[in-house]
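thread: overnight batch results

M.L. [08:02]
morning all. the overnight job finished for the chain we discussed friday. pasting input first so we're all looking at the same thing
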Amino acid sequence: MNVQLYLTPIPFSGDEISDKTAVVIDVLRCTTCVSAALMAGARGVIPTSGPGEAADMWTKIGPEMAILAGERNGIKIENFQLGNSPAEFTSEAVGGKLVVMTTSNGTAAFMEATGAALTLSCSLNNISKVAARIAEEGRDLVITCAGMTGQFSIEDTICGGMLMHLLATKSKIKLTVNDAGSLALLLYRSNKTALRQTIAQGEHARFLSRLGFETDVTAAAACDTMPVLPILKDGCLAPADE
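M.L. [08:03]
and the structure it wrote out:
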């Protein structure tokens, strides 16, 4: 399996991903919240590029059927019902509803991955589910790390490294990876016994902790606590039919 990992989002041409599996990773906190929302019974999560688009989509769907969630610079957007903390996505808040979401980093990354044969949302919380589906599909893989404001982030890269490690060890898949993928593998394997501590020391985690979201960082650093498989189809991330 050929694996191309990107440390930050890039625009893809159709030829680059049309026959591949694409994975978007934004551990802090978009893809973690996607998993939390679906675990809480949301019908799906619709990633949007900005607050205006999100509000228009929410109005079109109808407030009784959808809820607005998102942040800019870590803070809940004014007049949105939810921010970007996993703990906010409870069954009472999102059960049976569509979540229209916009975030500073993660939702834009999904916009770039819509042309893939299969697009998955990956966090540490659901990483084994994602790895198993990638192995089942057997296609070449593109991993996009959302990063932080266009820059490298340690948590997304280490998650990408763990994903490749699971494919190589549990699924016994022979991987051919690019240099960024080799870096991600090295980062994970060097820190796999101290993931939470490594992520907590990162720039993004320190930023969120200063804003009072330290518990979000702890929750996002836990592996396989939300065994759900979000698949992007027709612009909506919904749980796989199993």
